[in-house]
C-alpha cells in the first residue's frame, strides 16, 4: 500500500499575549514547551511550540502572536474551531478537580459517547479534553500534570463548514481518510491506522458567519506524512485534482506544503522528520531561542524586540 497521511501533525493558532499563552498551555494543560522560535515571515514575533516530551506528530500545538485588540479574530466557518486533546477516560475526574482548583471554568458534555470537558484558553479559543480509552500514546509527565493523567496529544481536528461535500471528497479521494461515524451535523473521518490523533470532525453549520484570522482563532491544521517522497506524491495528486498547492517549504523541523480545502480551511502536510531535536538536545527542548538560519546574523536585534518570557522549570526525577 502506498504511504499517505497518517493523522494530525500539528495545529497552529493565533494568540494575543505569549506569556498568558505559555502559562496556560504548560501550567494548566501540562504540555511541554518544545520549541521557542520566531515567525518565519515576521521575526519580531514569537512562534512557540508545545507537545509531548519529543514533540511527536499529533501532539504538537503551535502559536503565532498578534497582540492588541484590533488583532482579535472571529471563530466561524472555514476554520478549525476547537483544540481537542485526548486523556485517559479514567482521568476526566482528575481534570475536573484540576481545572476547578485552578479556577478555570468548564462544562461537561458527551459526544460520540466520549466524556468531554469544554473550556476556553486565555484568548477564548475553545479547548476540549476528551476521555479516550485505548489511546496508547504517552503524555508528558515532566510538568505539573502526572504522566498517567497527561494529555496525550490531539484527539480530532474539528472543522466548521457551511457545507461538507467538497471537503469530504478531498478527504476520501485524495487524502485517504475513511468515514467513522456521524451524529447530528458532525461526521468523523480517520486516517492511517485510525483512532485518537488521526481523526477529523466536519461540523456543518450553514448559519455561522465566516471566520476571520486573528488572536483566539486556529490558523491551520497540518497532517502528518512519513517522508518527503509521500509529501511530493500527495502534492502532485492535489494539483492533478485541481487544487492550488504551495511548493515544498523547509520549516526547519519539518517540510511542508499548504493548500486550502474546499470548505476554506487552510491545510498543511508536514513530514515527521527531521523533528525538534535537530537543533536542541531532548532535555534542552524549548530552553533557548532558536532562530531560522537566515535570522542568526540579526539575533541581537531580534532578542531586543521580543518580549521576555518566564519559562517553566522542568522537573527532573
Ligand atoms: Zn503549520
Could you give a short description of this structure?
The protein is α+β, with helices and mostly antiparallel strands. The protein is 16% helix and 35% strand.
Strand order of the largest sheet: 2-3-4-1-13-16-15-14
How far apart are the termini? 43 Å
Low-confidence stretches: none
- CATH architecture verdict: Roll
The CATH superfamily is known as 2,3-Dihydroxybiphenyl 1,2-Dioxygenase, domain 1
Order of helices and strands: EHEEEEHEEEEHEEEEHEEEH
CATH level 3 topology: 2,3-Dihydroxybiphenyl 1,2-Dioxygenase, domain 1
Please give the radius of gyration in angstroms: 19 Å
Number of strands: 16
User: What percent strand?
Assistant: 25-35%
Question: What percent of the residues sit in helical stretches (DSSP H or I)?
Answer: 10-25%
Describe it for me?
- The structure is a single chain.
- The chain has 5 helices and 16 strands.
- With 317 residues, it is of the alpha+beta class.
- The protein has a single domain (7-301), classed as 2,3-Dihydroxybiphenyl 1,2-Dioxygenase, domain 1 (Roll).
- It has an 8-stranded mixed beta sheet. Strands 6-7-8-5-9-12-11-10 form an 8-stranded mixed beta sheet, with helices on one face.
- The radius of gyration is 19 Å and the shape is globular.
- The model has no long low-confidence stretch (mean pLDDT 96).
- The chain binds zinc ion.
- Residues 10, 12, 220, 222, 268 line the site of zinc ion (ZN).
- Zinc ion (ZN) is lined by residues 10, 12, 220, 222, 268.
